[in-house]
Specification:
The protein is mostly beta strands and 588 residues long. The chain has one domain. It has three helices and 26 strands. The strands form two sheets. It has a 22-stranded antiparallel beta barrel. Strands 18-19 form a two-stranded antiparallel sheet. A hairpin with a 3-residue loop joins strand 8 and strand 9.
């Protein structure tokens, strides 16, 4: 279950700070019992205080108390705030949506001028051009009795002076919402995401996340050949009901419908072995039905959860049909406020229509522990049997000091790249600056990592991510490493047959030069390899520096330089690129 930030059994430890949104702890457990190939599931509403949930805030607090060993509704462990997720650099002006009750609407516009000395990102056909970028945008926040929602919309127009074939309009959306239809009983979770993606990957995941004029939300890949970009849309709708049986427990049941749509027209270079052009012009649809019962404070230190979940996925073109049915029962026991044990047992049936076809009917089980060394830290370690293999799982948020936090996650399981997009979207919240973060931990969250590439194949995947963030008085410093190993299990038509392995590390630093001027630098280095016919190894180095200046409360300027060097063992797949950018951001 590589895309899961949590796994079944963690819910007792990772309950959000009260007030609890509708059964977020329940949803987290369900989400991580389902492989990333078919996750389409509501996670808590991201950006506003909750309405009363079906189990009630009381029920959630009591469950957390049991997990912490109090047995009578102890305090929830503190979750890092979104503003603490400094890995994604905090903008200085015009980038934060004010919080508060009711509706908040903030329009804006970005205008940028770019010089790129290699617009096609090629080794031999180097062509320079000047590019004008016009990006109007809007942030909308809702915090009412019935609705908590957040929308970031940034259409981006790119106009080239010399190469009109590169002109492009990209749609960028990040949205989450929770609608209370019947208080305490019936809810609708909705979320959406849109961006332009490079199917064959090989680009820095940070290149357009660190620098925009005053904010850091969804942006187009401004430095990439537009012929390689595919417009991608993903959305989900998840109605569900909850009912509380006093202090005995809470029942939640619902359905979810989601789609991921890849636009047509994108091309992958003919000599590239990464990614799958067959995904262009395809649609993946997932439906899910689930029911879960979680015990309440009556049982003291014991938290028992029984889950049934069934997911079906169908696709057109470059993806395989999939179904997964899971039944599992889990017991958490709080030995102390700092230590809890986890045991679960059940069964699953899973199939994937690729070559060869995959069908797994097997038991599932886990044993593990959850540690809470301080109020801002949670460490969950598990070992178990899922999707036909024994695997290890780690999810940790550790506050080293009040200023430094370390996030770590390791998981193994079956996965598809398209399922990862839906999975990450369902875990996402949006912080005040338009950045996507993990709703449970506040850690930075990329909906899709542009470095590894996308195919429709089924993989046995190992994923590791480590991030350290430090927030000082005038500085924000971040270190991160991401590792992904994909061993092909089943292939679909049009996707390259083989396995991939990749690692990328990033360091970033933001410094306040004056009260109104900020400097930001980042660098990353990555290496990825494809084991197939032919095989390929790519090395990527990417570095950038920017100065941001606040002219007024609503007007910000930026000057930026970016250097990219990509080297491949295959002829024609290497290139280097220099990009200069100046821009203005105006908030209204």
């Amino acid at each position: 279950m590589p895309a899961c930030a949590l796994r079944c059994g963690e819910v007792g430890a990772s309950l959000p700070v009260a007030p609890l949104r509708p059964a977020a702890w329940l949803i987290a457990a369900v989400a991580c019992s389902v492989p990333a190939i078919a996750r389409a599931f509501p996670v808590e509403s991201p950006s506003a205080p909750a309405t009363t949930d079906g189990g009630g805030t009381e029920a959630g607090t009591a469950a957390n108390g049991a997990a912490n060993g109090t047995g009578n509704g102890g305090e929830a462990a503190a979750v890092p705030t979104p503003e603490g997720a400094t890995h994604q650099i905090t903008p200085q002006a015009g980038g934060g949506l004010p919080s508060g009750p009711g509706w908040t609407i903030q329009p804006r516009v970005d205008i940028q001028e770019i010089f790129n000395d290699n617009i096609f990102a090629t080794q031999t056909d180097r062509r320079y051009d000047f590019e004008t970028v016009i990006a109007p945008g809007i942030s909308i926040g809702a915090d009412t009795r019935r609705l908590q929602a957040r929308l970031e919309y940034d259409p981006t127009a790119e106009i080239y002076a010399r190469t009109s074939s590169e002109n492009n309009v990209g749609q960028n959306v990040a949205a989450t919402g929770l609608l209370t239809i019947v208080p305490d009983e019936l809810f609708l979770d909705a979320r959406a995401y849109a961006t332009q993606q490079v199917l064959n990957g090989g680009v820095s995941p940070n290149q357009n996340n660190f620098f925009t004029t005053g904010r850091s939300g969804p942006t187009s890949n401004l430095f990439i050949n537009n012929n390689q970009l595919t417009q991608t849309y993903s959305y989900s709708l998840s109605p569900y009901v909850t009912h509380r049986f006093g202090d005995t427990g809470t029942l939640q049941a619902g359905v979810s419908y989601s789609q991921t749509i890849f636009g047509s027209g994108a091309t992958i270079p003919s000599n590239s072995v990464f990614g799958s052009q067959a995904l262009a012009g395809t649609t993946q649809t997932s439906t899910e039905e689930y029911a879960k019962f979680t015990t309440g404070p009556r049982f003291g230190r014991i938290l028992n959860q029984a889950l049934f979940d069934s997911t079906q996925q169908t696709g057109t073109g470059g993806s395989g049909d999939f179904h997964h049915t899971l039944g599992i029962d889990e017991i958490d026991y709080a030995f102390t406020r700092e230590i809890a044990g986890i045991v679960d047992f059940g069964g699953e049936d899973l199939s994937f229509a690729g070559t060869p076809p995959i069908h797994i009917t097997d038991v599932v089980w886990d044993v593990g522990a959850r540690l809470t060394p301080n109020p801002d830290s949670t460490i969950t370690v598990r070992y178990g049997h899922h999707e036909g293999i024994n695997s290890f799982f780690l999810d940790a948020t550790y506050a080293v000091t009040a200023r430094t936090t370390i996030y770590a996650n390791y998981s193994e399981g079956l996965s598809t790249d398209t399922g990862e997009i839906v999975n990450n979207l369902d875990q996402a919240a949006i912080n005040p600056y338009g950045q996507t973060i993990n709703a449970e931990t506040g850690a930075p969250l990329l909906i899709n990592n542009g470095f590894f590439g996308l195919t429709g194949n089924l993989y046995r995947q190992k994923s590791l991510s480590l991030t350290s963030t430090t927030a000082l008085d005038r500085d924000s410093i971040s270190l991160s490493v991401m590792y992904q190993n994909q061993k092909e299990v089943s292939a679909v038509p049009g996707s390259p047959s083989g396995s991939t392995d990749g690692t990328i590390g990033t360091v970033s630093w933001q410094h306040q030069l004056t009260p109104v001027t900020f400097g930001t630098v980042y660098a990353d280095y990555g290496i990825r390899s494809f084991s197939g016919t032919p095989s390929e190894t790519q090395n990527l180095f990417d570095a950038s520096a920017a100065v941001t200046h606040i002219f007024t409360e609503s007007l910000t300027g930026i000057a930026q330089y970016t250097f990219t060097n990509s080297h491949s063992n295959l002829p024609g797949n290497s290139y280097f690129q220099n990009v200069f950018l100046v821009g203005l951001h105006k908030a209204f």
